[in-house]
Amino acid sequence: MRIAILGAGAVGSSVAELAGEYGHTVTALADSRGAAVDPGGIDVETALDRKEREGVVGGSDPEDALAGAYDVLVEATPTTLGDAQPGFGHLRAALERDRHVVLANKGPVAERYADVRALERESEGRVLMEATVGGAMPVLSTIDDFGPGRITAARGVLNGTANFVLSRMAAEGLGYEHVLAEAQDLGVAEADPSFDVEGTDAALKCVILANVLARGDREYTLADADVEGIKSLPGSALELANEDGRTIRLIGEVSDGAVRVGPRLVPAYGALAVTGTRNIVQLETEHAGRLNVSGRGAGGPETATAVLADVDRLDS
């Protein structure tokens, strides 16, 4: 498959680097300032070297990547809220050309899910989005295999930064600010970690799960989610939980038509008490009980594997 990649951050760059191993050709790679475009296949190493040296992947206009020769558009630009632009516009342009779209960007399907599906119905292209929920974890494909109508609820730990902070606070008895600074030093947390620690990132993933499980009966957006982060959680709360054989994790949940994210007490040695940046999603099924899907929920190469798995599905 010929792939055009919009977004040259950790995920987009990793998709470009790994695409050849999966048997695909990268015909375009674009960042916000420029693009490398070649219908026969770009030199990925050269483009990424230029990105590191000059801050831009190539001398072409980013719009040239969107209008170029490709079978699948990989949308890996940063997630935005509200109108989900420019990601939604990129998706629309590809579908209007009857091209497939694989999303790493959560915005279009967390904020404009009905619009995305309407565009998809009018196109010969398909939209796949495994990478939007849980990085390398096959959450959406598991739901698809079972059938969304057979899943009654979903819950889990869906943000690695918040989980790192909470698990370190619990294990070492350290305060929030101290652990957050450590996470930033290690590259686990962004310089501005608000998207993660306020629960927004986990909520977006839960909204996507809610949309998938609703099967078009209802559209969810971030505005429908009840969200509480971890910034105001005192270390004493974790200490008290530990005395009772429990701990606290930032849990997202989709059940009974509601989307909720917030700190929750969980058994200290239970499945939801994953540590570090590890994520987990529990799916409640009609006939098979509870399924646990756990693994690396973020990271460039990890998320790129989910993107390329979607590309393989389109190629099968």
Describe what you observe in this structure.
The protein has 316 residues and is an alpha/beta fold. The chain has two domains: 2-135 and 300-315, 3-Layer(aba) Sandwich (Rossmann fold), CATH 3.40.50.720; 140-296, Dihydrodipicolinate Reductase, domain 2. The chain is built from 13 helices and twelve strands. The strands form two sheets. The chain has a six-stranded mixed sheet with strand order 3-2-1-4-5-6, sandwiched between helices. Helix 1 crosses helix 13 and helix 8 (160-172) packs across helix 9 (176-186). The protein is globular.
How would you summarize this macromolecular structure in one to three sentences?
By secondary structure, this protein is an alpha/beta fold. It has helices spanning 10-18, 44-54, 62-66, 87-96, 107-111, 113-121, 139-146, 160-172, 176-186, 194-197, 200-214, 235-243, 300-315, and strands at residues 2-6, 25-30, 35-37, 72-75, 100-103, 127-128, 151-157, 225-227, 246-255, 258-267, 278-285, 290-296.
Count every helix, treating DSSP H or I runs of 4 or more residues as helices: 13
| Rg calc | 20 Å
The CATH class of the largest domain, by name, is Alpha Beta
Which residues form runs of ≥5 with pLDDT under 50? none
Count the strands?
A: 12
Any idea of the CATH topology of the largest domain? Dihydrodipicolinate Reductase, domain 2
* Beta-strand proportion: 15-25%
Order of strands across the biggest sheet? Answer: 3-2-1-4-5-6
Order of helices and strands: EHEEHHEHEHHEHEHHHHEHEEEEH
Give the domain tally: 2
**Gap between N and C termini, in Å?**
10 Å
